[in-house]
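fyi for ur records
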Amino acid sequence: MSKPLQGLRVIELGQLLAGPFAGCMLGYFGAEVIKIEPPGGDPIRNWREVKDGTSLWWRSLGRNKKCISLDLKTPEGRDIVRQLMKTADIVVENFRPGVLEAWNLDPANLQEDNPNLIYARISGYGQTGPYAEKPGFASACEAISGFRFVNGYPGEAPVRPNLSLGDTVSGLHAVIGILMALRAKDRAAEQGINGGQVVDVALYESMFNLLEAVIPEYDGAGVVRKPSGTTVTGIVPTNTYQCADGKFLVIGGNGDSIFTRLMQALGRADMAEDAKYTTNADRVTYEQEIDQVLASWCSSLPLDEAMSILESSRVPCGPVYSAVEMMDDEHFKYRGLFEQVEINGEPLKLPAMMPKLAGTPGGTDWPGPEVASHTDEILAGIGLDRATITALKSSGVVADSH
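which gave:
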């Protein structure tokens, strides 16, 4: 079966995570993604765990991409990009605002030659406004977005998850914006008009988008939501508890009928039947008391036994997994969450990408390739002959594959 985005060409400009994650998703679901890297390649090729000279992260993030390395500080390098963009349906870039304008690779210039081009721009603070030119790393953008403020424990420094959430969430927003722009372009084509447009994604805005009721609660009730440790403000009980074997269990017993079943499962029919715990609003008043009961019960049982009791009463719960438990879990395997590739003859598992499509699923065709590994194919595709390609490599405008 063909993949849903097959037939679309994407030019990926930029480095590290937000833009490349968007490109990774588009490629996973069938788009041809041409990744333009600086000389030496994307820095993420050397981040974290490196094996045989290349990071294992790159093998996942660079999957299904065709790679070419260009010196965009040269007119010749920029001209190659301009030629490629004439053939593209989508551009994904995450340079600091103004850089591509200085190189004449901005939407206004490129859409003159390609008026149907969808140009997705990812930056820290957006393409306009007082902060537009600020350096926009995910850590700082997560902070200003309000996301970090609600994470951690009261009275302590805000906590970040050990992931680059701002980048990944922004990449997801870019993909959503691109898909909406593609739909709008289809409608424009039905009317006989051009449908290119800019998708402007800001890291801080993508994280701001996750804040649920934080803004209306403050504006309408003057309430500032604050950090609440492992709980969620105003929802009881939902927390993480340590079991007798040292493993952690998350219990979500905040539905009214669920709470009744939860207390009965714990042997606390008195709490299940007590009117003071009937609704969530009631239970918020007694949050500490309820949490102490749950913590004491969990600490008396190993995780598997506690889960068995709760699941038999249809109480939502789940273990806190690391990579070790995920890769051993039969449900993860059954759902196809791991895809195996080969790197220099050795197997390597990569995470599958969601969502699952029954009729036109995505998939990994090849892992992240070596630097400049598709150079000749890409340049020949825009009409350059062998002598010209050789000259560009000799001049350093184009890197040769390793």
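The chain has two domains: 9-209+336-395, 238-242+248-319. thats all i got for now
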